[in-house]
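Hello,

Our lab assistant flagged a job as stuck in the queue for most of the afternoon. It eventually completed. Since we weren't sure the result was trustworthy after the delay, we are filing this so someone can double-check. Below is the sequence as submitted and the structure that was eventually returned. Let us know if re-running is recommended.
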Amino acid sequence: MRSSATASGIAVAVATLRGLANPFSREVVFDCVPPSGGRYRFHLRRAKEGWRAYILDQPDYAGRAADLSTTHRNFDCDRGQYFVDRQPAPQRRDAARAVAALWAEKTTRYCCYGELFV
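-- returned structure --
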């Protein structure tokens, strides 16, 4: 596992799934710890419309509304998993990773302070 930082300053630990060393890999799992706290795990996967960040693990919503619209998530019925709802879908893996990290930061702020996504 290795750590890196994104442009937004969010520390991200990256784990390998099917060869992270290969920049053309269609799947990657990574852990994210945003500055405001919490631990997240994502599975980046190539889909026909672009990259998706499936949410493997995240903190509880602490009694706040957890509907898909408020939390900026969507549900993949075929996989039975939630993913970060970003339209249009990122076309590059690094962009999907940045979107997931930003979503994690915004989600932590929502859970802790009630700040809505803007």
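-- support follow-up --
The delay was a queue issue, not a problem with the job. The result is valid. Residues 3 and 53 are 18 Å apart (CA to CA). The two ends are 32 Å apart (CA to CA).
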